[in-house]
Amino acid sequence: MKLVYLGGGVGGAKLLQGLAAECPPENLTAIINTGDDFEHWGLWISPDIDTSMYTLAGVIDPVKGWGRAEESWNVFEEMKALGAEDWFLLGDRDMAVHLERTRRLRTGSSLTEVTQHLCQAFGVKVRLLPMTDKPRATWMHLADGRDMPFQDWLVKEGGVPPVAYVEYRGTDAPSPQVLAALDAADAVIVGPSNPWVSILPMTTLRGVAERLKRLPVIAVSPIIAGTAVKGPLVSMIASILQQQATPDAVFSLYAGWLDTGVIDVQDAPDREQPGRIAAPILLPDLAARRHLARRLLDILGA
Amino acid sequence: MKLVYLGGGVGGAKLLQGLAAECPPENLTAIINTGDDFEHWGLWISPDIDTSMYTLAGVIDPVKGWGRAEESWNVFEEMKALGAEDWFLLGDRDMAVHLERTRRLRTGSSLTEVTQHLCQAFGVKVRLLPMTDKPRATWMHLADGRDMPFQDWLVKEGGVPPVAYVEYRGTDAPSPQVLAALDAADAVIVGPSNPWVSILPMTTLRGVAERLKRLPVIAVSPIIAGTAVKGPLVSMIASILQQQATPDAVFSLYAGWLDTGVIDVQDAPDREQPGRIAAPILLPDLAARRHLARRLLDILGA
User: Fold this and answer.
1) Chain A stretch 206-265, residues whose beta carbon is closer than 8 A to a beta carbon of chain B
2) Whole-angstrom distance, CA of residue A8 vs CA of residue A35
3) Nearest CB to B121 within list A41, A82, A100
4) ipTM of the complex
5) Are B75 and A81 inside 8 Å of each other by CB?
6) How many domains does chain B have?
7) In this structure, what CATH number is given to the domain that contains residue B131?
């Protein structure tokens, strides 16, 4: 069975790691959000691709959940001394990836090709596909009338100012590899990621939703017991949807193509609901990630 | 008295350090060779500017004579692991300079402006002027028929294959600041640098030689007792000029605008020669550099 996984950053990478441990790599393709990508210090940074790649390679910082383990900050300290912007933390080993990505992009490689090269260098066997090879920026429109790129809102503003709505600027064309992977897929799993920031940038690409409609799609809730494991999702649900943070609030954004929503056992109602399955979806370690992955594969009959 | 200094890499930076200690900074402008500049890993690297800047700032690696003291190599090691070219050594702190230079160049600043910013960040008060704001590459034509950029010959080939002649490719326009500095100068000092690799790329720029002709010009020999303190100059004199390595072999390349050649006391003939002055020109430490600088300033009446 050919599976496609749709994933974003830290949460998405955790379930992906479980799936990678449970599936033969030739049967699993992960389409990764690039709406958070941005240029910084002249380098092209793809945070969600790197978080996925580092997690699969086992070199992720286990405490922060992003960046490299055993990292040093010598270039960063020197850049600060030279007056460069220091609001975005870049470690030395992490920076090598951005340098090599940027260099290859500038010499004409696509982001898809560069990602393939980097994955190979890191020994990552699962195919990671950037959602598109062209810029598509997740753009935050705030309740106070300001608007800014996602990283500015998340890092510079601490993810605090209420969001009115989210826009995707730039291309609406997925890469040909993304469409081909969906065309070849037997089922799709959507990771426990922020819908506006990670999933919708992908599913609103031209031709993606219509393909999802034709496939069995399972999504894992990024909300457990009214909270998000990581990130500003609860306040975004409040400010954008004027709703409490529930799995159903998230799944409502996937209407039209979602078949099954997986919620945490803590959120399970007394009796089963159609289209909802309860499972332990907190993913603190590889055992929990593999366990959920196995459960999802069982549901799909894989 | 307004002085202009023409300098290249390691040797040039040593005398410049002495001059900077003996002259008020507003009276000293150093024009620096950029013929060795090249792009590597997508970064724009200006080796002679950096060597001059690091030497003046007191952060140069005192053993290697280039790069930063107390350097680390974390990005470099990771780049090797990613399959990047590893023939040119780039330390972490050094890399920050290249990153910031490249970023500023890409956003439209000139190399002159970027150099000014970097010097300010390093507390360097002497004005360092890149010889030009546009690419001009020192290109090595080898006796075996091959030709290549300078860094390829020096680093990849170890500076070993005999050189037939040297070409300067690219712009022949100096920066406006270079011409203005020469127009305002009362005298010029040429550092003890490789003539083909460091000095001639500057003096063959349009309008430079004619200005040098009108000014008192002193050059310090890069050859002492038949050897070069650093680098492949002796073999270049042999292969290009078919001569022994003497100060006069170097000074012959400056015919037309050189007034006084300063040779080492070891090379002094029994009786004085017109246009030649003997002094201790080995520059191992700041005391020796200041001593020679003072001597040159005395000769010029500064």
Assistant:
1) none
2) 9
3) A82
4) 0.87
5) no
6) 1
7) 3.40.50.10680
